[in-house]
Amino acid sequence: KAGVTQTPRYLIKTRGQQVTLSCSPISGHRSVSWYQQTPGQGLQFLFEYFSETQRNKGNFPGRFSGRQFSNSRSEMNVSTLELGDSALYLCASSLTGTAYEQYFGPGTRLTVT
Amino acid sequence: AQSVAQPEDQVNVAEGNPLTVKCTYSVSGNPYLFWYVQYPNRGLQFLLKYITGDNLVKGSYGFEAEFNKSQTSFHLKKPSALVSDSALYFCAVKEVNRDDKIIFGKGTRLHILP
User: Fold this and answer.
1) How far is the C-alpha of B46 from the C-alpha of A98, rounded, in Å?
2) Average pLDDT over residues B5-31
3) Largest CB tally within 10 Å, which of A3, A20, A103, B114?
């Protein structure tokens, strides 16, 4: 079974631009969650989608948004990028949600200059 | 509000010695508790979880964790450390029966010295 895939793996953007990251979950997994990983803050939950509906949201500004498609693939969008958005963005999938084992993708390394 | 703390940014252990990575949590009700590991240049991997039942949970790679409700702790342990255990370890908590988000700790870097 193929693992969680994320594209692109690396991205360099300029402050003020927007970016879209993509995540393909493990086949059969209906829950997709997004996390931001930085050295200072560790792993912070962004949001979780289940069957195309946002089920939970972390404490991030509205510039961070996401969606999930009918095939469970998910996208995350960050608008008006700031320098502080530079981070590793991780996507994780699970059968039913974050209360169960999550399988993480390799991440997208976003650098904002 | 739920929270999780990993009080040590880094833990150094000699190979062959027992290791402990500490985690404490706070939830209003009962917790789901997790440990995940991030090896260098590899993705985060699930190690183990506590939902209910036996307080000692066994996981992958010889790791185990002990749930202590009175101390609100969920420390990760291994009887004999390997150099290959060197990695970044994350503890996480989610409250049972509430549709709340999962909270991860800031991580503890474990260095196993040969």
Assistant:
1) 12
2) 96
3) A103
DSSP 8-state assignment for residue A27: T
Per-residue model confidence as pLDDT tens digits over A39-83:
888 899 999 999 999 998 999 999 999 999 999 999 999 999 999
Count Cα neighbours of A67 within 13 Å in the Cβ-side half-sphere. Answer: 4
CB A94 within 8 A of CB A56: no
Token pair of A42 as six digits? 């560790």
Cα torsion for A41, A42, A46, A47, to the nearest 10°?
A: -150
Ordered DSSP codes for B32-57? EEEEEEE-TTS-EEEEEEE-SS-SEE
Best of A53, A98, A108 to substitute, by most chain B Cβ atoms within 10 angstroms, is A98
B106 contacts A45? CB cut-off 8 A: no
What is the spatial distance between Cα A79 and Cα A63, in angstroms, rounded to a whole number?
Answer: 5
Q: What is the pLDDT of residue B32?
A: 93
Reported as a single tens digit per residue, the pLDDT across B75-84 is 999 999 999 9
Q: Sign of the C-alpha dihedral, residues B110, A10, A69, A45?
A: positive
